[in-house]
Amino acid sequence: MAKDKQQIVIGLSVIICTYNRADLLKNVLQDVCEQTLADSEFEVIVVDNHSTDQTRAVAESFCQRYPNVRYCFEAQQGLSHARNRGWREARGEYLAYLDDDCQIPTQWLTVAKEIIEQHAPIVFGGPYYAFYNSAKPDWWKDDYDAYHSMIYADTAGYLEPYQDIHGGNLFIQQSILQKVGAFNPQLGMSGQQLGYGEETELQMRIFKALPSPRAYYDPRLYVDHLVAAKKMNIGWVIRANIAHGRAKYHLCPRSSMRFGIVINCLWRFVELLKNIVKEFFYMTFKRDKTQHPYWQNDLYESHRFREGCCGMWGFIYECVMAPLSAIIAKIRW
């Protein structure tokens, strides 16, 4: 049933960026619109990042029923572009970034309001837990939920300086973005292309600009995050970790590079070859079939495979391509 129109005094702007996931969008919008927090205290902004499915129709159906829901279309592909568009459209004091494949409890925004009133943190958020809407493959262990969840602590408090809040459950004071800028469009998802690191890079800039650079974390402010069927195969794990490696290049201080970009790239390439040989030898000759009954278990649980092979390859790729792209851009200019 549609809610009566009323004057909206906005404290929170919930921004949901979406691309070709109309079915999931419908579910998360229903969760947001059924919050215990009064409609007059928050708005919902759906940023359609050039979808070609029924995304617009789904969003507009909620706009007609709920006066605090708005729809906007962002033609420039990329999650960072969509998140920045949401920021420009928002009227709330705080921005709440929520992924379109999340499920949220009805008290989610009420808890957020309590945190703001009691602590007024610049950046805050909470944990997310894995959930599924498809069958798991035979090799998938229940323990793998941890790979798709983020839980820092059992109690509320400020995180350590090196910890940051995941972008799918992230609250940011809007005024700080006026000082440090928004999400970096070079990072993050873009259509079907995997990409990461944009929320980490933004928080690094925020914390660098503040005298007390820490994010606030509250376990009550939780969401459930979908582990889609495509994520439960080794091919996706390879692509995702390569993408994490590429993002790491942009997040890594240049001062930590060994003897400059070229030498650093060569050094990491040697490490990559060593890790590939070690992983192949271990999986072929030394795999514990009791602990790893399937070969996928060995690869999925192997830090050497995830970071030392896939992540290292992504980092090396970006070591070469990022400077080359910059040179080509200058030549074209």
List keywords for this structure.
single chain; 333 residues; alpha/beta; Spore Coat Polysaccharide Biosynthesis Protein SpsA, Chain A; 10 helices
**What is the radius of gyration computed over CA atoms, rounded to a whole number of angstroms?**
21 Å
Specify the CATH architecture of the largest domain.
Alpha-Beta Complex
- Strand count, sense and closure of the main sheet? 8 strands, mixed
Computed structural class: alpha/beta
Which regions are unreliable across 5 or more consecutive residues at pLDDT < 50?
Answer: 1-8
Mean pLDDT: 90
The number of distinct β-strands equals 11
Order of helices and strands: EHEHEHEEHEEEEHHEEHHHH
CATH topology descriptor of the largest domain: Spore Coat Polysaccharide Biosynthesis Protein SpsA, Chain A
Please report the number of helical segments.
10
Kindly report the spatial arrangement of strands forming the biggest sheet.
3-2-1-4-9-6-10-8
The amount of helix comes to 40-55%
Instruction: Give the C-level CATH assignment of the largest domain.
Output: Alpha Beta
Residue share in β-strands: 5-15%
The geometry reads as globular
* Name of the CATH homologous superfamily of the largest domain: Spore Coat Polysaccharide Biosynthesis Protein SpsA, Chain A
Compute the number of structural domains. 2
In whole angstroms, how far apart are the ends?
55 Å
